[in-house]
Amino acid sequence: MRIATREHGVQSVVARGARRPRSRFGHSLDLFASGIVHFTMRPGRDLSTLSGFDLTSGRVAIAADLDRFAAASAMAELVLRFSRADPHDDAFAVLVDALDALTAAPAGSATDQGIAFAWQYVGALGFAPTMEACCSCHAAIAPDESAPFSHEGGGVVCGRCTRTVSVGRALPAGARLTIAAWLRGGHIRLAADPDRRAHLRLLREFIHHHLAEGGSRELCALDAWEARLRASQ
Known about the structure:
Layout: E1 2-5, E2 9-14, E3 34-40, E4 47-57, H1 66-82, H2 89-103, H3 110-124, E5 147-150, E6 155-156, E7 170-171, H4 173-183, H5 193-210, H6 220-231
Helix pairs in contact: 1-2, 1-3, 1-6, 2-3, 3-5, 5-6
């Protein structure tokens, strides 16, 4: 199994006897659980031995709601794919906050919170897009203006720079400000499902462009989350 840790990033561990009926781990190693982990790292080996896990939060409520589960699965996928064995204190904090928030998310709010935390996680890894100024010339863009978004450039683009920077769809002013607020830690509630689908599509495209490079570019949980949202229309 793979676990996310604060000090050692993502680690692959083997929990000997975990599937036995009387395993000392019991049900503590469920998905999305948090706790104090004890494992042995050996130089030159990619697989460590898990010797103990003291459960602090089981988060079983995530599995009781499909929207919570889809959002939490996408967050876990981002961590497993992009954190690797390097410690990212800020990113780990975002993960813990995201799972706690999704566990307590009221009906209908899990998708909004999941998108917000996913953007925060991208920002914690150092890939936050520029939303309030041109990503090319850094000129400020008025809060009430729409602006084209550039995955390649890493943010919105002013009218003058569209001649030199590859751009895609235009982002309405409200969408720009919402993402900017999410990146700062805000949790804005979206108005309708079409807005959620548009925001999740932009998030997926940005992650694929900047993070899912080399090897398989598939992000199964993220893609399934978007597919579920499309199916709900």
